[in-house]
């Protein structure tokens, strides 16, 4: 794991390519990267949509929209080809997180260089 973020804590950040202030991962080299995220909405009856963004473009998204539960997760994972200097981050595209990102995780790592 190159980096793993849980709520406001960075648990692992090998190479310090994940910036805690901006919550952006900066690719240190060209390659195939694996990303996954798990975003929890709590006590919120609206639908949320979360996207993994690379250089401002959505790569994958996840939804959580069950109106009858107090907690639900929007979860997804995928492989992305990135160039050196590309930026990856999460964006809340729809809804709001009343409790913030408290129980959410976001992680990624280089699968293999190109």
TrEMBL record:
Organism phylogeny: Eukaryota, Metazoa, Chordata, Craniata, Vertebrata
Keyword Secreted found: yes
Name of the protein this chain belongs to: C1q domain-containing protein
Residues covered by the C1q domain: 1-114
Compartmental location: Secreted
Organism annotation: Monopterus albus (Swamp eel)
Keywords attached to this entry: Secreted, Signal
Gene Ontology BP term (one): maintenance of synapse structure
InterPro entries: C1q_dom, Cerebellin_Synaptic_Org, Tumour_necrosis_fac-like_dom
SMART domains per the UniProt record, alphabetical: C1Q
Domain of life: Eukaryota
PROSITE patterns reported in the protein's UniProt record: C1Q
Transmembrane segments annotated in the record for this chain: none
């Amino acid at each position: 794991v190159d980096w793993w973020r849980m709520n406001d804590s960075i648990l692992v950040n090998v190479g310090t390519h994940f910036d805690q202030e901006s919550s952006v991962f900066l690719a240190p080299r060209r390659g195939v990267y694996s990303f996954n995220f798990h975003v929890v909405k709590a006590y919120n009856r609206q639908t949320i949509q979360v996207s993994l963004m690379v250089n401002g473009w959505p790569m994958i998204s996840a939804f959580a929209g069950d109106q009858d539960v107090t907690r639900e997760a929007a979860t997804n994972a995928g492989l992305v080809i990135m160039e050196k200097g590309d930026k990856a981050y999460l964006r809340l595209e729809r809804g709001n997180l009343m409790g913030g990102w408290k129980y959410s995780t976001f992680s990624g790592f280089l699968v293999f260089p190109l």
